[in-house]
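The following block was generated as part of the benchmark described in Methods. Ligand: magnesium ion.
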Amino acid sequence: MKTIDSLDVKGRRVLLRADLNVPLDGETITDDRRITASLPTIRALAERGARVVVCAHLGRPKGKVAPEFSLAPVAKRLGELLGAEVRFASDVVGDSARATAESLGDGEVALLENLRFEPGETSKDDAERGAFADKLAALAELYVGDGFGAVHRKHASVYDVPKRLPHAAGSLIAAEVEVLRRLTDELARPYVVVLGGAKVSDKLGVIANLLTKVDRLLIGGGMAYTFLAAQGHEVGRSLLQADQIDQVRGFLDEAARRDVELVLPVDVVAATHFAADAPHEVVEATAIPADREGLDIGPKTRELFAAKLADAATVFWNGPMGVFEFDAFAGGTRAVAEALVASKAFTVVGGGDSAAAVRRLGLPEDGFSHISTGGGASLEYLEGKTLPGLSALED
Ligand code: ADP
Ligand code: MG
């Protein structure tokens, strides 16, 4: 994959696909992390004299213009962070976009309106997507892909435009791909993966593929209860995906066959109901009362998981161990996060909620080797899928 150093950008319009999908409360950006993460590539291009036309999506406006999904507040914030004016086009590929792109001088930056206001961006119809990609590509002479959070989408700005323009990967994508290689091709062992989160069904594909790669798989969070149920245990009112039990039984067999150590909770924090102040107690994972709901892994499990992480050379963690949004049920997630911080291994955190948990619990972000900005994209890569946005940049 070529980096931006391979492009001669001076005086040329560069269409930069970034991930600026920030959470908004009205017009206030509540977390500008994705904007700050995009700055290095924007700056590098501008400093080399490129005329940078940034494009990105925000939320899911589903192909229609919707003011509440406008990128205008993002343009403003981007300008503040860059310390330079960011011209904002009030459409994606219309008169405003063309005029804005043409008005740029060397080293100047513009942002187009939300890509997803245009139905062509996400269309499953190749011709419709292609027609939109033609218009987008016409705004620039070169393309740089840096929106890692969107590379698993076969969208016009991610997949079709790099097929139309000379292209390269920005520093965010380059860094993510480097990390993912260290979790696949250039793996240091023992490789331990910790999975949690709400639904086992979201992660069936990644579990299946990881079972062929890992030395140890630790399962916590809501998905653990489907595993416990597959072993024949009562899980009370805990999160259970009964329709996945057969598949999960298959994973247990597969792990045994492949000599993968699959580690499940031995105790859980069981609450009377799903609430921040719900009365709760620690029970054995094999003896969850029928009227209780497991909302976190218990203290013995936290110690067990920390011990199973201690000798790892590579760790990938996706999915909180409990309902970390409630302080009373955040202990398990904290314990795993602290075990990663203490570890000398190459440690990677993937997943939006897992990254949010690291922040919420006040853990040092530099305590991890890498916190991925694109949960869905990382998981699909680890499932062994080809990511459209990466393959388009490789061609
Ligand atoms: P990520 O975004 O990191 O991939 P997920 O989206 O899969 O993670 O899951 C995150 C959610 O899982 C959190 O909102 C958390 O509250 C929930 N969760 C974790 N453990 C449990 C549990 N035992 N019961 C119910 N929900 C849980
Ligand atoms: Mg999530």
